[in-house]
## 1
Amino acid sequence: DAKIFVIATGGKLAQFAKENNLPLYLLDPVHNPSGQPRMAVGYAIISVMALLAKCDFFHLTAEEVGETVSTVRKFASEFAVEVKEADNLAKRYALKLKNKILILVASGHLLGSAHVFKNQLNENAKTFSVLFDIPELNHHFMEGLRNPAEAKRFWHILFFESDVYSSEVVRRYPITQDVVAQNAVDYGIYKLRSTAKLDQIFELICFGSFTNFYLSMLYNLDPAPIPWVDYFKQKLGS
């Protein structure tokens, strides 16, 4: 039988767990003042990891979590509002992405973080973005770079490179970038600077979160409201 464990901040899900006598991890999201689930990624990831570690599915030490927290603080400081554009990669990338369609490319352990980046671009910056993964995209994506030719000026492909990827995956990145260049499509590379996988996961989330926030500012938007998602939910529930 499947084992059910509920992680919630309250609401209907927590009530469901209590009514059905299900084990419940009730979070107090004091570090998510926005109240938006998409901005509570740290709670979502670490709570699930803690549960799985308690069940001995993998080993996670307090020291590893502490190192990851230090990584987040380091990059949050580097990408902070008070850091000028010349020294702030997140601000520079937001400027590059204005009026562009961002195509994200990642692999392995970074796919989840890249997915978060894409979703936050949609919801916070109200901009279109898609995600592909290497090696899967090497079977089709490259042939799709030809048409429509007029659309290429709107595309920017961002590759997330990591020394922690397998050697087979690492070899694919420069070749894929060569194909992109030959198709006259603009691209950039973000090379993860952290060394541990967990640290890299949060480094990318940090970079993506700041970048999409700055992009929302460039579009003169409040990143918090999600009117079309709310509209959809309202219609679905009526």
Note: DSSP finds eight helices and six strands in the chain.
## 2
Amino acid sequence: MNVAAVADASKIRIVRAGLERLDDVEPLWRALRDHHADIAATLVPVRSAEESWRRRRAEYTEWLSDSSATILFAEEDAPVGYLMLHMMPGPPSWAIGDRIAEVETLSILPAARDHGVGKLLMAAARREARERGATTLSVALLHTNEGARRFYEREGFHSFYLTMLASIAQE
């Protein structure tokens, strides 16, 4: 990948895909998994890259098979990033729409980060979500991922839920 070309957003194209392109996600997922392992390994144990991809692939296959999800690839000559958008019913308690779109995953290869690829993917996700009837985007992220938090805040997201974990395995 030519990183200089990535700096020019006109070189990147966003491609909508489904199950037929799932194998193209693997190296991008692994890059994100490695990043998460680096920034959060002290919080909880991390699965191996192979096990993580096996589980994530199964989850993506289910969503893509029932048409509740879409893969958006950012491509130069090859994929440099992807966003998995998952459509879900709106929550019963909050008046944020009957359908919401969850950004399940946003991953950009390390060499392509900070060149506007995430911004392009988010713009495409907004369009896709609106076309599919959503009025709200949602995303969950590791609380240790400060870079992602700043990115999503710049994209108009704000904190809403807080998820907490407690181990009950050895009580």
Note: The domain at 3-154 is CATH 3.40.630.30 (Aminopeptidase).
## 3
Amino acid sequence: MIKSLLYGVGIFVPVSDLKRSTAWYTEMLGFEVIHTDEPNAVVMRMNDEKVSFCLVRSYQVKQPEFPKNDYGVGQYFNLHTTNVSEIHQRLVAKGADVTEIEDFGGFKGFSLTDPDGNRCGVTE
């Protein structure tokens, strides 16, 4: 097997209002701003440097629907947590758009939607 030279991932998130979305991702999810190129983009990260989110100011933001499938997946990526109940409670208390926690047989999770309709899963 060949050792990968890759070490992380960058996710680009289209947003209509960069300031509003930056505030949402920092306040709701605790992301940290690591680079700003206003008014066009803000790069954020979670607890480590392996995953970065680049909020990109976009026009006519329209979210693609995840294709129908037999696996039950409805969004393009998941954020992982060690305590899905706690983060769900915190997000609900802050007024976030979340679904109820579901048990998927082996893991639990819920969906989270940002102000522009970008949807992701949060799983334990």
Note: The mean pLDDT is 93.
